[in-house]
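From the shared-data thread, chain only:
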Amino acid sequence: MPLGESSNSFSKMRKLKLPPVTIVILILFAVTLIPIVIGLLKQSNISSRPKAAACITNASNCKHPGTGECVGIAYQYKYKPTDDIFYRCVGNDSWVPPLPAFSPTPITRLSNLEMAQQIVSWFDKQKNPDGVYYAFQLIDPDNNVTDRIKDNRVGTNVLWAKYLLWTRTKDTNLLTSIRTDLEMETNTTKVDVYAPDFWSCKLLYEIYQDTAIPQDYQDLKTKAKELCYRGVYFALQLPVKVKKADIEIDVNAELNPIADIDIEKPFKLDPDLDKPSDDYNVNMKLERKLRKFSSYVSDYLAKYKFDQIPNNINIAKALFNDLVDTYSSLGGSNNYVKGECVLGVAALDLHDVTKDQKYLNFATKLFSANKYNDIPLSEKAACGVFVYNLFSTTKDQQYQTTMKNTATSMLSNYDPNIGAFFQNEYPQKRYEVESNTLIVKLLLSL
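Structure, as tokens:
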């Protein structure tokens, strides 16, 4: 625009003789409006980016170095040539701005063995001053531990994970560490009651039966069996005789006949009619029961392997029959039920001991529902072990493929700074000892 024309326009504006107050208001309005317009323009740009589902093609190349979360080098947003703002993919179509101090530099992917070694090293940091393990730790965004609860029962899972790592590395320091853990767990002064709520004897039997353990460490087998028989297992309302005021299962009592039930009932339910209760608390209690007592089935079968007492098989059968009804009351195979993969392992253990095909059929039908993608890390780890056992039993490659996919899907939950896998409990992260022991099993099995 020519200079003269600009001056003329300005002169015309001056002739309007606007009051000073009006001029100030107009200036304030402009100052307020400009950022809003810029923000709308930026939002328009952002809304045009690709769907989040397509944002990441290789999770191992886009992990946040501080949190282990899968993040978006898949999408780079530039508002000005000097801006580099990276967004994280957090859902099917959901994006959030970068975390503080985020660097999109890819990190080097550890091998499965290296991750397993880091996890086992992390376990040794999860003890109280008396040497009793914590069940989990919660860490806030500032990397402060906000909560942890001791639970001596997870010590069995830890020494099992150490044993698994020893089978790969043959590092006798691991056997020495297992000895320390076993001495703690069998010390009635430091651990007065041992009441498993997850696999115990099942894991300890793996150590007991291993002929490759060196002669200098044969005491581990004796201690493993001792710890198994320290366990107190609480009874359900079953045709199983009990002692101690109807609390603890009595393995030596005579059992009533085990009913012959249709164990395929959970796979025949009508999704519209056979629905779980609308009461969340009722369902939660049933799910806890399913997971806990399914592990009992496997433990009593392990006890049978220790001493060949037939009653242990009968107890396992009675427990399993009751749990089939529990699983059915939660909707069966129509939806994912917490603990169902532990029930699947129980079915495979029953098949292993009894050679009854119906238990293997149950396990394969449970897998066929295949609802194990969008579930918590703790459940996904147990399901990975279930699928591993299916593959070990059948040698069917579909199970091996699923096991690999399950393990791969958890990689974004690995925190290289902590050396363990976490479960998001926004804004905190929960690092569970039990889940990480199962993940060690998967990592060493691939």
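The longest helix spans residues 20-47.
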